[in-house]
């Protein structure tokens, strides 16, 4: 199967830059969780509270560790790669191969996501060994499995959204700002900056109909036992619906975009 | 195998005035110009034929190749390759073609060539044994077996180009587009690639379209050439006929036995030295004129030359013929 070959090839490419692989991960997690630690420890101390929403300080730190990793997992490959390939004419080579471009790129994306997933496991094990797991959290196999499966869906959804934005580059030379916007919005509305439970209730109701919470925070919430099975099934349906929506948009834009494509650079 | 009828392609190109002011202005107002890359070209290519596509930079060669490979959509016209419309990009079509772009790496930069070939084996569903036999044969023929496990980015330009050729031909395409396959290569590598292409042609009889700025490539590989200028074909025929078609004169050089003053003859004297004359004579008058010159001048030696193909083609590029 070519998809498996693409997946393993992409993994080999990641392995060939192993220093970058580890430094990028450690720097990102340390900075992100470090900022969250100092910010929230000061809030907890000033307010004199021992929990916020239904998160203890300990659980909140684990939440930030997981969401920081999940954000990397769903984003997979560097943003802007597809748009760069369109802009520089490198898309041409994929158009000649008898394979669907979207699937090819998703498999590449998934390989990166998988590597970040392995890093997430390292991060959780490290956290559990050094700080211990919060007492209110019980890790069960079915939760871990469900979390993993949901992460796959989140990866697909994020890729579908990002791919639609990336192929705008058929018309606009640079879509970097749009991709940065997606990153910021998915971070804010996806619960990476702030747990969504801290948002007002009306905002949460709206948010949970949008794709963003299912990109980052929902997987973490499954892992941390914060959502029920029923909520997970509903979320799966919503992710599926949004994925179909973005795939249809992609198909339409892709078809129109290819008519614009001139394969510059060759 | 390749049928092209009245193919047209126009691009809308954004034009920006130079300087900061021009850049700021383009934020609000954009000026576009329509560029006609192909202005209704028609031709056929048969199996086993290698057609050389020649033209100056920007003449429309690469646009034509990209359209035939299904990479860009045409503005108008019909193309059938192996019965398929290229820009519909059906898998059955893509399995039977190959595109080699000398100026653009198609293999994966960070991976050894063999890994890239393994991926191509999967993409084209090449049976394992056939793949290994083919890869061994191709790599031995091109003399790059030792380099198969080296990352593409660490290979020399010539080695990389050979890998690109292998990658393109592993699945035995029936239609091959070669866009400047020897660009930037030394003579040895150029020759190796030319020999290899000829060998592939004799074994598989594909239809091939070759663009190249090197006349050596064209002379060695193509019996038929198409010359394109500003999106239009100005010549489509045998390479050898181009001189007969476009040159009205032959050059007659005379080495004389003794010094003479320039003779009074009805033809243009291109060069005159005390014992040497170079005369431009219309093609249809060469025989009687030479006969007359032999009788009237003390000729020691005589040569009759055609204008060089390169010069004719260059003049055609410039629109001087």
From TrEMBL, chain A:
InterPro entries per UniProt: ABC-2_transporter-like
PANTHER family documented for this protein: SLR1174 PROTEIN (PTHR36832:SF1), SLR1174 PROTEIN-RELATED (PTHR36832)
Pfam family, one: ABC2_membrane_6
Superkingdom assignment: Bacteria
TM regions (residue ranges): 21-43, 55-74, 94-112, 118-135, 147-172, 178-199, 206-224, 236-254
Signal sequence range: none
Keyword Transmembrane (UniProt): yes
Protein name: ABC transporter permease
Keywords: Membrane, Transmembrane, Transmembrane helix
TrEMBL record, chain B:
ABC transporter domain: residues covered: 2-255
Gene Ontology molecular function: ATP binding; ATP hydrolysis activity
The entry's keywords: ATP-binding, Nucleotide-binding, Transport
SMART domains: AAA
InterPro entries attached to this UniProt entry: AAA+_ATPase, ABC_transporter-like_ATP-bd, ABC_transporter-like_CS, ABC_transporter_ATP-binding, P-loop_NTPase
SUPFAM superfamilies assigned: P-loop containing nucleoside triphosphate hydrolases
Entry keyword annotation includes Membrane: no
Name this polypeptide is given: ABC transporter ATP-binding protein
